[in-house]
Amino acid sequence: MSDFESDPYNGFSVEYLSPSNGETAHPNISSRVQKLEAGFHSKVHRHTRSKVLHVFKGEGYTVIDSVRYDWEEGVLLAIPNWAWHEHVSTSADDTYLFTVRDLPRMEKLGLEREEPYQENDGHQKGKKCLILNCKRYKDEFQLNYMVNQVYVWLTFYIGYI
């Protein structure tokens, strides 16, 4: 992946496609792997698709609507639709994220939109981020939020399978 230019919002990414037809393996959900190089700090953007990230390797944090969520290997993180977000790799080595998202469904419905953050050179600022530990679920609100996002996301799409 490193032979190509890094995307300022997602680092390097490879979409998983069916070899038989070149489309996503599932008509409603797509998956991809992202590589964030050591020290990578993405620019902020938002989109109508929602996604769930699994940290396969590495550590860092994601800021979602000015709230910081630390993550490390094995953590799941839900990013709701239309939420401003950015990823930061704090690893000495490359970080790999496995991402599942509802992009095919949003495209088929004609609802997919994406918007870059224009202020502060593309990074969230101002408020001090609330730091929550995703792995140990010390904050009950965060766990409930993540579970509810995944539940709503899956419930909506299972109905279309």
From TrEMBL:
The keyword Zinc does not apply. SUPFAM superfamilies: RmlC-like cupins. It comes from the Bacteria. Keywords: Dioxygenase, Oxidoreductase. Residues 33-100 form the Cupin type-2 domain. The keyword Oxidoreductase applies. PANTHER family: 1,2-DIOXYGENASE PROTEIN-RELATED, CUPIN. This is Cupin domain-containing protein.
